């Protein structure tokens, strides 16, 4: 089963912010945001995307991070607060390796520049003949 969850701000609809995943926000802040996430009116944790998009979104995020189906995960929670805490912990645990690697790379910008330069050189080598043929076909060179 493939789920698409929205991981952003306080609304259950929005766009993924890459900076959040790469460590622009600290895990504590991310956890705080998750526990303040928008849920729906009512007091029962159920996976019903049409009737309760906020809770459904949190369950989809949890399923994506921790595994399992959103509907099955819903039965393990008796309150929105417990669900939000579980989602916060799962998101923080999921992104931690990315944040660690991002921090390592941030400490060595020279390495990052070298990797980018090497990749650009390899790409030029691979595409040079195709670019030459395209320029000739367009009449840009004789």
Automatic annotation (TrEMBL):
InterPro entries: Rossmann-like_a/b/a_fold, Trp-tRNA_synthetase. GO terms for biological process: tryptophanyl-tRNA aminoacylation. It comes from the Bacteria. One of its GO terms (molecular function) is tryptophan-tRNA ligase activity. Signal peptide: none annotated. One of its GO terms (cellular component) is cytosol. Gene3D superfamilies: HUPs, Tyrosyl-Transfer RNA Synthetase. PANTHER family: TRYPTOPHAN--TRNA LIGASE, MITOCHONDRIAL. This is Tryptophan--tRNA ligase. It comes from Phytohabitans suffuscus.
């Amino acid at each position: 089963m493939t789920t698409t969850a929205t991981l952003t701000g306080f609304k259950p609809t929005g766009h993924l912010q890459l900076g959040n995943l790469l460590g622009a926000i600290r895990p504590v802040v991310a956890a705080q945001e998750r526990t303040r996430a928008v849920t729906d009116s009512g007091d029962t944790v159920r996976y019903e995307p049409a009737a309760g998009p906020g809770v459904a979104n949190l369950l989809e995020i949890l399923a994506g991070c921790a595994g399992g189906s959103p509907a099955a995960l819903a039965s393990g929670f008796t309150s929105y607060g417990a669900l939000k805490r579980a989602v916060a912990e799962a998101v923080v645990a999921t992104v931690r390796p990315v944040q660690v690697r991002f921090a390592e790379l941030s400490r060595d910008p020279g390495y990052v520049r070298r990797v980018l330069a090497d990749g650009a050189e390899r790409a030029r080598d691979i595409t040079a003949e195709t670019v030459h043929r395209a320029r000739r076909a367009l009449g840009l060179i004789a």
